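User: As part of a screening pipeline, I want to sanity-check one entry by hand. Below is the sequence and the SMILES for magnesium ion. Please return the complex as structure tokens so I can compare it with the automated output.
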Amino acid sequence: MNGEAESFMEEREHLMKLTKVIAVTSLKGGVGKTTSAVNIAACFAGRGLTTLLLDMDPHTGASLHLGLDFKNLELTAYDLLLDPDIVLRDVVCKTHWENLYLVPSTGTLSELDTRLEGQVGREQRLSEKFQDNLNTYDAVVIDAPPVASLLLYNVLCAARFAVVPFRTDYMSTKAIDDMNRLVKGVAKRLNPDIDILGYFGTMYDRRTKESEACMKEMKDLYGKKVFDTVIPSNAVLARAARHGAPGIEYARDSEGARSYEQLSDEILSRC
Ligand SMILES: Nc1ncnc2c1ncn2[C@@H]1O[C@H](COP(=O)(O)OP(=O)(O)OP(=O)(O)O)[C@@H](O)[C@H]1O
Ligand SMILES: [Mg+2]
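Assistant: Here is the complex for your manual check:
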């Protein structure tokens, strides 16, 4: 192997070792961000990747979904972002599943905008905390909030990749445009490394023409950026949350679980 090829291989090996930081994000509410973040993280963990699920939504959906015991909670994402002395490992909780770790959130996270108002570099709080300890994890999956807030800017500044779910209905493409614009703005001004890895359809109902039409429209508009995998509408995925488990653990043989396994493979091969 000549010197150039060798250094290319070294660079590639280095990149492969970097933690994959993936934000599941959309500016539209209720499109399946939390369900997807939880299941993708659980799929990664199931493949032997040490995975951190970071709950960055004050509604605490991802933390609830993993059956977190809020009574014994000491530190959360809020403390991580606010307190300069708190490092990532201080806020990481174990979960019931091997290789899967959680940074929980609570409602107080919604106070972040006010608490950090006027502070320089407030969008970079999370990415700064990622500078240490991050290589403990093979992957970090972030459940992002649905509004363009300081919290979301922190998510997008810390992420290398964004994956964007869309409900397979008529209103979806508009929300994708908004998300694209936001990521472009962040890439230009705050985090040049961020890239949209792809879009994926959720809650697909094969009995309706609407779901099919929406997928076609998305593929026409965004081509290969749309993942091949489509997440079906599957009540098991919603029921799993009530049982404090990711759908892929609660009902491994369900259509929903299988679709998230497939999507996670696609995501990993694109990273
Ligand atoms: N594939 C699916 N099939 C059936 N129900 C689903 C599916 N995905 C998500 N749901 C349900 O749809 C609702 C919204 O999903 P979820 O909370 O994941 O969306 P979200 O984008 O995180 O919402 P928010 O913007 O409020 O954070 C939840 O009740 C969830 O259980
Ligand atoms: Mg959510």
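Points to compare against the pipeline: Residues 29-35, 57, 59, 61, 146, 202-203, 231, 233-235, 237-238, 241, 256 surround adenosine-5'-triphosphate (ligand 1) (CB under 6 Å). The first strand starts at residue 20 and ends at 24.
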